[in-house]
Amino acid sequence: MKIKTNKKWREFKRRDEVPPKILADQFDWTDEDHAAHGDYSDGFIHYRGWWYHLGDFMRSGAPEGWDGVRGDSFFSGVLIKLSSDGEQYQVGTYFS
User: pTM to 2 decimals?
Assistant: First the structure.
C-alpha cells in the first residue's frame, strides 16, 4: 500500500461552512436538530474537491499510524489522523 500525504495539520470545518447543497445531498443525516444540540456541528473535511465528515471514517482497517479509513474503491481511499486533542487532522490518500 502506498500513502500520499503532506502531513499538514488542518482545522475541521463547521456545518455552517459546508455549502447547503452538499449538506442536503451528502449529509442529510446531520440535520439541524442534531446540529442545534452540538452533534455533527463540526468534523467536516474538504479534501481534493470532496466533502467528508469524521463519521464517514472507520477505525477498523486503518493502517498503523492512522485513525480512520474511508474506501473510495477496492484499491484506494482516504485516511485520517487526529491530533491528540481531536481538534485537527491530517489527511492522506492510499492506493495499491
Answer: 0.86
